[in-house]
Amino acid sequence: MIFHIATELGWETARRAGVYKGDSLESEGFIHCSTADQWEQVRAEWFPDRDDLVLLEIDPEGLGAEVRWEGGFPHLYGPLEVTAVVSARRL
To answer: Helices marked H in the chain — which ranges?
Structure first.
């Protein structure tokens, strides 16, 4: 499994649309993701004061996007099909 931290609004919008694109896909060309061992550190570093977040648990087998491992982190090159999200829990 891989993980992605999203805002509640971003995830709800994606669920209705059937696809999650994320801001970084537009600006950097990929969606930042983490492993099970990385997501808590990512949250602490990049989202320390946010309380509107959800953690998406993603099954790589169901992705519509390519996964590339860069700098020790998984990145999704392309939109994330919401059907690949196994769970979304509020952080």
So the answer is: 8-17, 22-28, 39-46
Prediction pTM value: 0.91
Amino acid letter for position 6: A
Three-state SS for 51?
coil
Task: Quick: pLDDT tens for 13-51.
Answer: 999 999 999 889 889 999 999 999 999 999 999 999 999
- How many Å from the N-terminal Cα to the C-terminal Cα in the chain? 18
Contact 11, 66 (CB under 8 A): no
CATH number for the domain whose boundaries are 2-90: 3.20.170.20
